[in-house]
Fold these 2 entries.
Entry 1:
Amino acid sequence: MPIEKAAPEMDRIVSADQPIEELGRGYGGDQGPAEGPLWWKEDGYLLFSDITNNRRMKWAPNEGCTLFLEPTNQANGLTRDRQGCLIACEHAARRVTRQDHDGSITVVANKYHDRPLNRPNDVVVKTDGSIYFTDPSI
């Protein structure tokens, strides 16, 4: 299956001639695929969320896929903040968290206008450090 380019800017990221490589299978269960991929550049590995199975997986060259964290509160979207810490949207806990370099977890958001979040899903961090995430209805 070839890569379909949606915009010419894509050429800066990946060549349309690059072969697609399957890194693993069996994630997501009957509920669907794994999501939330995040490349950890310094250590050369990919993290992704196996939401339905409540775990975070790691793929690294020459290692393949291994368990990185379990349980994850059915985390989905993953990104990093300006300090390089992991930001995750946790479906089951209805919150967005930050995992510091020492492993400690800080809740970034769990309410909006004094109402609990629905099901935080995708997340990005802007260059000024602002965190944006989606919160679709349950």
Note: The first strand starts at residue 35 and ends at 40.
Entry 2:
Amino acid sequence: ACPICYCMGVDALSYFLNIGAEVAPAHMKRKLQLIIPVISLSVLMALTIYQAQDAVATIRENAPPDEPDTKMAWIVWSFGFGGVVFDLISIYAFCKNKREKREGQLPVNMLAAFMHVGADFIRSITTTVEGLFLIANFPPGINGDVVDAWSCMVITVIVVAAILYGLFEVVRDIVIYCKTG
């Protein structure tokens, strides 16, 4: 739960900073719109990789399966499903905002914010699937900690790949900004 709290804290900080960039004075606005995504995506990547360390240790332990805890499985599934619903609403809002602007592309600061929502969406999907495996006790005698660790590894790979794309876009915009002034 702690790594998720860290990532949610980074999400909140990213939204706060991006709002600040949008209301900043004209002479600072574009610079902030380019700097803030680098910071928020870098911190998100660091925390995502950091949380994977515990997952790797759990996978290496290969502990024997725990007794199935159906109540906990339903709680895991409920949080995951709730997250999927919330994230889909957020993604819809981003898509609607993009259509209203009619520019064809999100500014990099909004792309970074969208990537935070996307990372949360991936976490929610894997948590929902993890809950389903635990509820079904499939395979029989499944170890919830190991399933959680593998889910974390899947999340880490997908999120880091997406963040690298986001950082590429930001750096590209920074280069364009530096060339054009």
Note: The radius of gyration is 19 Å.
